[in-house]
Design a protein that fits this description.
4 copies of one chain form a homotetramer. Helices cover 46% and strands 17% of the residues of chain A. Chain A is of the alpha/beta class and 309 residues long. Chain A has one domain: 3-Layer(aba) Sandwich (Deoxyhypusine Synthase). A 6-stranded parallel sheet of chain A has the order 7-2-1-9-10-11, with helices on both faces. A 3-stranded antiparallel sheet of chain A has the order 3-5-4. Chain A has a two-stranded parallel ribbon with strand order 6-8. Chain A is globular and about 65 Å long. In chain A, 67% of the residues are buried. Chains A and B meet through helix 5, strand 4, helix 9, strand 8 and helix 10 of A and helix 5, strand 4, helix 9, strand 8 and helix 10 of B.
Chain lengths: 309, 309, 309, 309
């Protein structure tokens, strides 16, 4: 047991850059501020390492909170090789890409009144119901263009959606040929739209077929790294994908607001993942606890500053 | 704005029953203790109401924590009509049903050492790796017996697994013909086993086909109620299933350790669900924040005491 | 690294006692449910050990939530030798003892309206402002009866208040000659009342004099144990009191809803206290994370059941 | 119920300033990222308003985490008129001012080993025990120089300490004649040192006398604003100080990692404070939930950027 570097008291400067601030948090080195700085170090090393296949997990209502563009920008800059998302984030990505907007709202209000005014609430973000009218029109149109035949994979379905959209995460992924996996797609408005379509049509989407290319990617990877925004299905799906290979993730950064002592995977430390072999014994891995609407932009802005200069 | 009942100071009595304790928390009525007592009231009303289709959502690592038997007992007593689970809980249910055990462990230990001793960690629960050897044998056996042909649904696959098991959640569900949905099944060891099987065989499991019977259940229900352990996919999949119908859930109880201000669905209040129409404007709905290894047994024991007497 | 006992799946029984439930949680042994059962074991051992001086720390708004009677009952049964409290809990204890009541309210309401209706809110508990009118009358009366002279200690002031009250924590403590310490007494309505009194009178209350008898108790103790409800000043004041002695606490149970990774003492694990020597290297110590309106009554009811039989 | 501005997706730019990032979070406007941006707006307005008496509350182990210099810099720049702190932060401020250092450590380690190597742990910060040797020497020296006589106030005692130190929070406060209040001073190493001194000497420190000048400040203030880092005694002591006046706080920003549903003041929303009249009905008030080692430097750097330009 040894003391490391001394804690350096943080000195702020008007006009300092995000990268400078995160470096100062690193020299202080304590609690989640210190963890964030270490996470920036791991993420920078992961992005600079040419041998690494870069996974990204996206959970939590990040697109309604304005965090979607950070994801699509990372894809456009070549920093994402594989994206795993919840269906909800993809639903809201489509809604934004169609020109509908989410709005500043309030978390303490009458949800009954909101219901009557046809406004859906996501904590303090409001989404008028008519966005779903446009969403339905778009989705039914895309489904109609699918040619029946061999079972479709979820990844192919999402790529098709991406090609039909002008902007956003799915569009960036399609343009850059980055695969998007979403094992729980049925658990989203996209799933509900599929059900609607299936009342009159039949196209089979295979629940498991995506594991084939995903595990091929894992087997072929010399090294692997993961940036995990939130927990949920994306975190587990990414981490478990290495279990069948002789390797594990070499780099991992997790930004989560959950807590470990409840036992759930979303709040579990990355050390726990070491016991399973999901990440390697020697992996560089950091968990930052906090709201990703703060930690995600901080992390990415700091690392972009270091890498793009 | 009006004051309700006076807060009654809690008087404890040696040997008091769980139901008596929860009633005392209800007369105190404050914070999560009060919420737990109100949740017991809602859950009791939901179970007593013959018109209600009773949904249960199961997320978080509940089976490794010894909470699985509460679920299977509820199924056996007829208190669950539809179960939606994460793949992980079903994986661990199968492991326990096969006679393998989870063990008391520690949350603060060397995960590298655990890795070397082939012990997997779930917070402070240990699971020796050889459980997965038996799990693999069982799963490959069941997969081999499936007859190729028309696409299988996840629900049918899980029912097949349940019929092959002597005890546990899947077995109880199969025995009682309670459907088990698991939209993110690929995101679990069951999914990985399927991938292994698919290296040499081909059986198509449809990602969306389950929505048909689930939504039929929703359309047919006179009333609906939900007991949600944790958030994640099960919570959303259950709540969104009502969106396509003219109705919403009439009763809802959520036990979660997450927090609402991060915007994620897992920590979202049930009031938020009112704005979407997932639960009705007049629904009886309570969220209890806390570790479900405490709140879930408390809630169920208290309600069983009232109902079975 | 070794596996402990197998996790036993929890079997609930209608009418089971709280002690039976907590024992079942102990055999499951996971997460905070398991921690609660271990905490019950530590607390039971602490109460059964005749050599132990029993400290209790009380933080968080426990009295408004109906948890005050559990404290006064523990005092009356001889299970508390030293109480350290926040000023707020003592203020609300006096209010209840004067016959004023707290009321069931709501956490999502207009605080501006509440203000206009002269109702004070504590999360979902309401306290009409007129309680403070009676409180003021009582406090000014007690202060007036104090004889000016040598500096008073906070402990003596609180004992004087306790003797003037018919029931509650302060009354039980006075009746049983249990000292009540409250180092931050100025930070409460009691402090504000003192300020009011001091506009026209002068009685000196010494800020530090209480440390003398408290540390004497610590030096004289053969063994020491602590039950800490919440963190804050009471937790630290109790734990630090051992720092000057050659000993540390031998038993410690902490019930807190905070989290450790923020670095604050309130959420800190008891293991951290071991590094400081506040608790001994071999101490039996357990932290249970969760809302104390649930964990506190559960813990005490379970232990009373074991001890009183 | 109305929608506000549309959520603007956050666009990051390498080399962007902290102020630019916080502004982008404000245009996104969601969850705690949005709250942080609104808090920056409130804090900026509070600092720009010449009529405002500016209070600062400091709780949580902020100095060991390297956040102390932000506080002393704010004092030096004239942005703090009244500081209320925990005793622990002042203890660690003295330790740093004496040239002792805190060190980067680890949160998952053997606290028994740490104990044996005489290293004290604060989550992942290590503090070698010898710091307390120097601390004791300094404290006993200062106490010895105090002239016995009329009761001392805590504020005067802290000013005396500040004048004897070369740097840090207490030194900046003394230099700038900013009063520092610490109602729970007994609950800290400073209190223990006082006890040690009092074994052979006698100086009376009055527990309540500080309320006189503090409440005078409150009565004299045209307007009042508060920046609250953490909760605890500092938060309550600041907010309650307005209760005796006809006014309340006009501006309030709270950075806390606690949660409101546990009922404790530390996690309570500032809206709750409105019902008590601690803040005015029309006050600009924002709570940001998260680790203050991230939110505090972000907030201050962003506001300094706006104000100093």
């Amino acid at each position: 047991m040894q003391c490391g570097e001394p804690v350096e008291q943080v000195a702020l400067r008007p006009g300092m850059t995000v990268g400078e601030l995160v470096s100062a948090l690193g020299r202080a080195g304590a609690y989640n501020g210190g963890a964030l700085a270490r996470a920036a170090g791991v993420y920078e090393a992961m992005l600079r390492d040419d041998q690494v296949v870069k996974f990204m997990g996206l959970a939590g209502a990040m697109v309604p909170a304005g965090m979607g563009r950070i994801v699509s920008d990372l894809i456009d800059r070549g920093h994402v090789d594989v994206l795993v998302s919840t269906g909800a984030n993809l639903t809201h990505d489509i809604i934004e890409a169609l020109g509908c907007r989410h709005y500043h709202g309030s978390s303490c209000c009458s949800d009954v009144e909101l219901r009557q005014e046809e406004i859906n609430r996501i904590y303090d973000v409001f989404l008028p119901n008519n966005a779903f009218v446009q969403f339905e029109e778009f989705m039914q149109g895309v489904f109609s263009d699918l040619s029946p035949g061999a079972p479709l994979t979820i990844r192919d379905l999402l790529a098709t959606l991406g090609r039909a959209l002008p902007s956003g995460i799915l569009a960036s992924a399609a343009r850059n040929e980055v695969p998007v996996y979403c094992p729980a797609l049925a658990d989203s408005m996209i799933g509900l739209q599929y059900w609607l379509f299936s009342q009159t049509h039949r196209i089979t989407v295979d629940a498991f077929l995506d594991m084939q290319p995903l595990l091929s990617t894992c087997f072929d990877a010399q090294k692997a790294g993961a940036l995990l925004i939130g927990g949920g299905v994306p975190k587990n799906f990414i981490l478990q994908s290495m279990l069948m290979t002789p390797r594990g993730f070499d780099y991992a950064v997790q930004l989560t607001g959950d807590r470990p002592d409840l036992g759930g995977l979303s709040g579990a430390t990355l050390d726990e993942a070491r016991s399973w072999g999901k990440i390697t014994e020697a992996a560089s891995a950091v968990t930052v606890y906090g709201d990703a609407t703060i930690t995600f932009p901080l992390l990415v802005a700091a690392v972009m500053e270091r890498i793009d200069v």
